Amino acid sequence: MPVPEHMEFFVDQSRCIGCQACVQACSECDTHRGHSMIQLDYVDRAASPQTVPVVCLHCDSPTCAEVCPADAIKRTADGVVQTARKPRCIACNNCVLACPFGVPKMNTGMNLMMKCDMCYDRTSVGKKPMCASVCPSQALFYGSREEIERTRPRSRPMNTFQFGRQTITTKVNVMIPREAQVQHLDVVAALGAPAAREAPDPMLSMLDVEVRA
Amino acid sequence: MAELPTETPAIIGTFGPHRSAATGMRLDAGIVPDRAVKTHCCFCGQQCGVQLLVKDEQVVGIEPWMEFPFNQGKLCPKGVKRYLQGAHPDRLLHAYERDPSSPDGFRVLEYEAAIRRVAEAIEKIQAEHGRDAFAVLTGASLSTEKTYLMGKFARMCLRTANLDYNGRLCMVSAAAGNKKAFGIDRAANPWSDILTADVVWISGANVAECAPITTDYVWQAREHGAKVIVVDPRITPIARTCDLFLPVKPGRDIALFNGILHLMIEHGWIDHAFVAQHTTGFDDLAAHVAEWTPRRTAEVTGIAERGIRQAAEWWGTAKTSFLMHARGIEHSSHGVQNVLGAINMVLASGRIGRPGCGYSTITGQGNGQGGREHGQKCDQLPGARDISNPEHRAFVAKVWDMPVADMPGPGVDCYEIFRKIDRGEVKGLLTISFNPLVSLPDSGFIRRMLEKVDFYVAIDFFLNETARHADVVLPGSLHEEDDGVVTTTEGRVIRIRKAIACPGEAREDWRIIQDIARALDRPRGFEFAGPREIFEELRAASKGGIADYSGITWEKIDLNMGVFWPCPDESHPGTPRLFEPGSWNPIAKGAGPFYFPDGKARFVVAKYAPPVEDVDADYPLMLTTGRVVSHFLSGTQTRRIAPLIDHCPEPRIELHPELAARLGIADGDWATAETRRGDCTLQAQVVRTIRPDTIFIPYHWPGRKSANQLTISAQDPISKIPEYKACAARLRKATGPPAYEGVLEPQQ
User: Which of B296, B201, B211, B287 minimizes the C-alpha distance to B252?
Assistant: First the structure.
């Protein structure tokens, strides 16, 4: 049974609280028990508790599959990009290096590239993926477009990304502030530009007086 | 004599904490579980619904329970990995007794022999030193049936006044404040009222880490335009995206609440009709807060004046609101005053007892609410009755079929019980679901008292750090090994369902207690066939009390996914939202919404005082303590679950880069924090998310890693909660790593 078409995956990184419930739940999935396919890291813990969950965005034309010399990475008819086929994967790491989002990871013990398959065993029988089921802040959300529009009026989904001259569209949506303009950063042009001024310290700015212990 | 029987590493070698990761069936995706048991997480007061997957009488995994209304499948990492506490190599499968000649300090004791030894020790101590010389310390992670039985056991079987519980470290300030202001101690609202609030005010609650599921409630409100105000000395994950962050100096919360009230009065942001009709004491309060000008408030709290003014405007002009607080304001030598200050803000706004208008503390322990209602607290009897009230005593004595004169009077709080050991007044101790050596402040004192007490018996499923001092250890039950009810942070009574049987010689805790009563030859009143029978007696014992469970049955809970108390008869649907017109109230009897004879809420003047130990030239920093998302309380369970250990292996000292620069400490350096109680060397975590005059240490670890080596045992005069959140400290770069480095694993 395919994944129902009206059910979509949405990632709202601004909601992430860094609790790692998704990371822990991912390793409970039946297709890869004991292995989590999600990475969750601080952006810059010294400056902020902001964390970002990295889940597969399931590209329409997956770079990981395009660069695979063994044709081991398959995309299902309903758009789910799967873990490398074990008999084919030669553990060359091409996919790991090529993915613009940094998703696939090489399991060196198993000589196999492993990645999120959107809990195919669950979503194909009408359940939510494990990570989106448990996520306490619903930074990871699985549901209909109507539902996300109704419940998240402050933001909107986006699924087109620009990397240099490569345009990528994805099955998974990333939530951005509703009014935000999407800016494509020209990395080459930015090289050599002066570094951005350090953001003000949010703690010090809200103190009554300068604190001196 | 309860000194450690041998060296700590030798005890750890046998009893842990060791890491447990998924192996065997738990990694086998091919297995089909025999059953999925709908129950709840064993950890915090939110009590998320979860299904435990059982195969061959072992819990092998979890499946989200999407239909349970509170969390709808959501779980934090502790809830996801909780199942790894079962079939754990450290699980106590036998009774033990202390044996210094054994390499690990203990030897296995046949269960009945252990029960006899405990009974003989209790009899000897009580015969020689009086009934009160034996003390009982219990916990709020127990099911409500067990907490009821523990209270009855102490009062009717042992007839000791010295009973108290670890909710003393958790809920008592909120409980006392709520009783003074509202006449009832329970969340005023279900969490669904957060969703339609215009302003969500969060004081001293690290919501995202300590009550993670509440995060989604807050952000759903925010999606629809709510302003979120967070008051905390640290930018916690929930504070990162709030609309207004107020970095309060530890221990100064009352000043902020009074300052907000000052501005509400000045600008006319008071619901005068509500105040006149439903409250008393406003004029005295108004006179008191007159001196709390924005300037003075800013000076005392350390918060920029513009932030205080903005918060007052948003709070003052809101149409709907929800105020939440937790241990940040309650763990204080003036914790009750802090709670009253928060409640005053709510009452002055008139926004309570209506949809979208709410107030609550966020309960800490799994049964933090139910565990404080039915008589394991030193001054309380079932149904939230008062052990000093002659009518209440007579009612409960009748249910228990005991002479009222035989029922002891009020005892003392759990910390005072340790002081009684020091004074030679308490000679024997029983603990269950409590790890005071890790969780109580000034832990050096607690260790010395454990070494001093004549006889100590611990009931637990793992040998926790305190139980290492025990003369006898009895193997109790895990959460998934027994049936019962607990009451969530919302006041919702829910069902804990048994998934598997106790392994080995381990027993359900209520059996162990009844076995001790039998061995004491005092079995009457302790012959329950199971938790359902205990619950039936609890219903009768709570009838007519404020915490009235008499209309709640296990079947009704199952049918309705929980029942909110008070629920005075079987046809009553329960009371999700308190203080609504016409809702059941046995005290006011229609006179008004609040639980006083006149139906009116009380404004109580909340007086500011600094922490008992403020900073000075020798100790110039404020130390505050708290939790991380991957561990729970004293870590008895979570420091045994490998994925949770890996998420946060060891505590670190958080400090601001300005302070770090002055002290010459870099991120990752070993640093020594010192107070008048002791010192603690940990790695530094240099972050801009904490006030520069404050350091933070999470408290889940034992021994030389324990933050409670440093904390002060000052207590609130009313609630007796310890002041974990503020004491004076100093910090320096350490000369080297601590002695345990390379000897103990991170979780040990």
Answer: B296
